[in-house]
Design goal:
- This protein folds into four domains: 106 residues, Beta-Lactamase (2-Layer Sandwich), CATH 3.30.450.20; 159 residues, Rossmann fold, CATH 3.40.50.2300; 154 residues, Heat Shock Protein 90, CATH 3.30.565.10; 108 residues.
- 52% of the residues lie in helices and 18% in strands.
- Strands 6, 7, 8, 9, 10, 11 and 12 form a seven-stranded mixed sheet that branches. Strands 2-1-5-4-3 form a five-stranded antiparallel sheet.
- Helix 3 packs antiparallel against helix 4, helix 16 packs antiparallel against helix 19 and helix 18 runs antiparallel to helix 19.
């Protein structure tokens, strides 16, 4: 647009100049004036500023100037003879070039008078100071008559030329206006281009900043990933370290409860069992929350009997605790399908959390309503509604939205008064949402609470859950052969005693590591293999893979993992290694026996407990082997055998742990620390456990642990003879 206007302007000026030169040439050839006959020429000049105001009238020749009527300060636009004078002045000032204009002409007394105005820019030091207007009046003799007609013709042509010039001037004025507009557009375009350039620069800076932020975000994500991995490892190790002694505590407590304890002993044992279970619930809550937050909790999708699950859950939780009488009233919709598809474990966990919550916050006479109904069915999905109500202390309305948040309870003194971590309802809410449902609460203080939630489950093609019971179950039970793969002597004793209490005739063989287990499984076909996962020489997963590679039928032996690791990844690794199932330590004896029966094709009979009386005390020593005495069921010979194992293996275990710290062998450190901590724990050597944990913490902080390891070795050397002497004394008493 701008370029087109400029080209038109240049072309117009060229045409104008060419035409004026042609007119002058024509006039010269037509008039043939003799300028030698020029009689008189008068010239005078006025000076105007660029806006048209007269600067001075002191020049005496002004009286002969065509604009002589003007006075200092007047504007050329006030010259009334021809208002276009101002246009000429401005045009001259604008383009800094001379302009010529004929003001008047007349013939008087045979004298031709012609007056011209010449507009000239006045420039000083390259700066436009103003415009001078020169009046040039020429007086010539009148020519002969024969020239008059030509003169008139010339005048006519001059008039035509003047009209053309005026027309061109008008067009030029329009062109100037257009040029001014185009100039403004050009300036606006330049400004826009400048803004675009600035925006592009800012955009480049923003992109550079975003790239830097993305790089930083990538580094942060890597740090978070490493942190999450470390957290998972920490939680897994912590779970393993806590569950291992819990396994012994709960397991031996269950065994002692079956040994006809007196009333006081029964009360103590029940308290131990309750406290251990509560601790296990807390560990499970923390691990579940971690798995949910990391997105690693997955729901199963299997067939199960919802009515049976609800009734069993209610039966298990209706047993009174802390002197409370618990009544659970169940109301199940008859239109519910007999079998549904979903995750029975998580469904049971949701119900257990809500019922336990109701029991916790009610008085001694706890009445719980459990109502299940079919909300709707759509295609292969069913929406099941649940309602758990109680007669407890209730929840204030302003706190009802807070109770489903992690580590939050209704009142600040709830934890102190009722216990708990504040995770149960948070985990329940997230489990409900994972099942496609929502949960809400309706409550008033001192008027109980009602929790309502729904689960989206699937329809099943089955109408009932069939239970396979072998007709030869009792015969096979008498001949049941089990390979127990466990490196920890205490855990060997616990598992053996638990299975013997369940079935005194069971045949149990031991393997201290995976390699021995593979060798035994190659030579003999067992009914079930109970496989620990964390072991020296060959771990449980590697052993399972090796057994599966054996020739048939030995490769088909059922393998049940037994480990203190509680994460789903550990279970997945076990199943991926070829194991059939998974039992978590501390294991539930009924659960363990049920799974053995499941994979051996048996129906579990009632337990047949041993009846023995536990006794023995530690005396004033830095050890307490009462737990070992109970584990050995007062069998002094068995106790002596276990102690001999400890006396033989402990010095080498301590030396190996010390060497592992020296070589920074983390795997060896983990295994030996675990073995020593378990052994010291079962022998009640609290000081040794403290030094062992102090060494691990110091190593994690980068400190030298050699002195602590020497102290640990010295402590064992001092305590081992005392333990041996104490056990000898027990033998003599026996």
């Amino acid at each position: 647009m701008v370029i087109t206007i400029v080209l038109i302007s240049i072309l117009t000026l060229v045409v104008l100049v060419f035409f004026v030169m042609y007119i002058k040439w024509s006039a010269k050839n037509a008039t043939m004036f003799d300028y030698n006959q020029l009689m008189q020429k008068r010239t005078s000049t006025l000076y105007f500023d660029v806006d048209g105001f007269l600067l001075s009238d002191n020049d005496t020749t002004n009286r002969d100037h065509a604009l002589g009527c003007l006075r200092t300060g007047d504007n050329i636009s006030s010259y009334t003879q021809n208002p276009d004078m101002a246009v000429y002045l401005k045009t001259c000032a604008r383009y800094r070039g001379n302009l010529h204009y004929k003001v008047e002409r007349e013939v008087e007394n045979n004298v031709i008078k012609r007056t011209d105005l010449i507009f000239s820019p006045f420039i000083s030091n390259g700066v436009l100071r103003g415009v001078s207007v020169t009046s040039q009046t020429i007086y010539t003799k009148n020519r002969e008559a024969e020239l008059l007609e030509k003169t008139r013709n010339l005048a006519t042509k001059n008039d035509e030329a003047q009209h053309l010039i005026e027309k061109l001037d008008a067009e030029r004025a329009n062109l100037e206006i257009a040029f001014k507009k185009s100039s403004r557009h050009h300036i606006q375009l330049q400004k826009a281009m400048y803004r675009i350039e600035q925006q592009n620069h800012e955009l480049e800076q923003a992109i550079d900043t975003i790239n830097k932020q993305n790089a930083e975000l990538g580094r942060k994500n890597e740090e978070i990933s490493r942190s999450n991995k470390m957290k998972e490892v920490f939680l897994a190790n912590t779970s393993h370290e806590i569950r291992t002694p819990l396994n012994a505590i709960i397991g031996f407590t269950n065994l002692l409860l079956k040994m006809n304890p007196n009333e006081q002993q029964l009360r103590y044992l029940e308290n131990i069992k309750t406290s251990s279970r509560n601790l296990l619930y807390i560990i499970n809550d923390i691990l579940d929350l971690s798995k949910i937050e990391s997105g690693k909790m997955e729901l199963e999708s299997i067939d199960f009997d919802l009515r049976d699950l609800v009734r069993k859950c209610a039966d298990a939780l209706s047993v009174g605790r802390d002197g409370k009488k618990v009544t659970i009233n169940i109301d199940i919709d008859d239109t519910l399908p007999a079998v549904v598809v979903g995750d029975p474990f998580r469904t049971n966990q949701i119900l257990t959390n809500l019922i336990n919550n109701s029991v916790k916050f009610t008085g001694n006479n706890c009445i719980i309503g459990l109502k299940i109904n079919l909300l709707n069915a759509d295609g292969d999905s069913i929406n099941v509604g649940f309602e758990v109500s109680d007669n407890g202390i209730g929840i204030p309305k302003e706190r009802q939205s807070e109770i489903f948040k992690s580590f939050t309870q209704a009142n600040v003194d709830t934890t102190r008064k009722y216990g708990g971590t504040g995770l149960g309802l948070s985990i329940t809410r997230q489990l409900v949402e994972m099942n496609g449902g929502t949960i809400s609460v309706e409550s008033e203080p001192n008027c109980g609470a009602t929790f309502r939630f729904n689960l989206v489950l699937k329809k099943s093609e089955k109408t009932a859950i069939a239970e396979t019971i072998s007709n030869e179950a009792q015969i096979k039970l008498e001949k049941l052969s089990v390979l127990l793969v466990e490196d920890n002597v205490i855990n060997q004793q616990l598992a053996t005693d638990t299975l013997k209490v369940w079935n005194p005739n069971i045949e149990i063989e031991l393997a201290a590591n995976g390699q021995i287990a593979v060798e035994k499984a190659q030579k003999k076909l067992y009914d079930v293999v109970l496989m620990d996962v964390q072991m020296p020489v060959m771990d449980g997963n590697a052993a399972a893979r090796a057994i599966r590679s054996l020739p048939a039928p030995n490769c088909n032996v059922p393998i049940i993992a037994m480990t203190a690791h509680a994460f789903a990844e550990e279970r997945d690794r076990c199943l991926a290694s070829g194991m059939n199932d998974y039992v978590m330590k501390p294991f539930d004896p009924d659960d363990l026996c049920a799974k053995i029966c499941k994979y051996a094709g048996l129906d579990a009979p009632a337990a047949q407990p041993h009846i023995k009386t536990a006794n023995g005390a530690s005396g004033q020593h830095d050890f307490d082997i009462s737990l070992l005495i109970n584990a050995c069921a007062d069998d002094i010979d068995e106790l002596r055998r276990v102690i001999d194992v400890y006396l033989t293996t402990m010095p080498s275990d301590i030396d190996e742990l010390k060497a592992a710290y020296g070589s920074s062998d983390n795997e060896k450190i983990r295994m030996k620390h675990h073995a020593l901590q378990t052994a010291f724990g079962y022998m009640g050597m609290s000081t040794a456990v403290e030094k062992l944990n102090a060494a691990r913490q110091s190593a994690a902080d980068g400190a030298d642990v050699s002195e602590l390891m020497e102290q640990l070795a010295d402590l064992w050397q001092q305590t081992a003879p005392q333990i041996k002497e104490y056990v000898g004394g027990l033998a003599n008493k026996a």
